[in-house]
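tool_call: predict_structure(chain=1)
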Amino acid sequence: MLETHTLTGKLIIESGNTSLVNLNKKSEMPCSGDNNSESGGVGDLSARMQVTVRDGANKIIAVGSLEKSKVIKNQGHNLCEFPIKVENVPNSDFYSIGLGHRGYLIYSAKEMADKRWFIQFRLNAFVDCKVAPFCS
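tool_result:
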């Protein structure tokens, strides 16, 4: 039987802009925005957005999604956090993990093992993320 892994993690969107965050805790979409400059252009990020894992040959080997977001307050700033889950990721020498059109994070098999199959994307909604897809 082929050994597989479950990739987990989170996408964190940093923003002091309250137009990005719906503070209604009962909302199905507590973190939302549109694709204009005021929201930082993050309107494409939502629960169920596809997360793809590719191997060293750039072949898609697993697909998962972002899960329902939650709002986190941190030192006066609003953070949006989307859990990530991708099941049945087969062994590979390298992994490219991507969110939609926003680019990929690349890890070796050893790095993934060292991270215990947990990754974290961070976006800063104050910058043009078309130029810097994963802003830290």
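agent: Helices lie at 109-114. Proceeding to next step.
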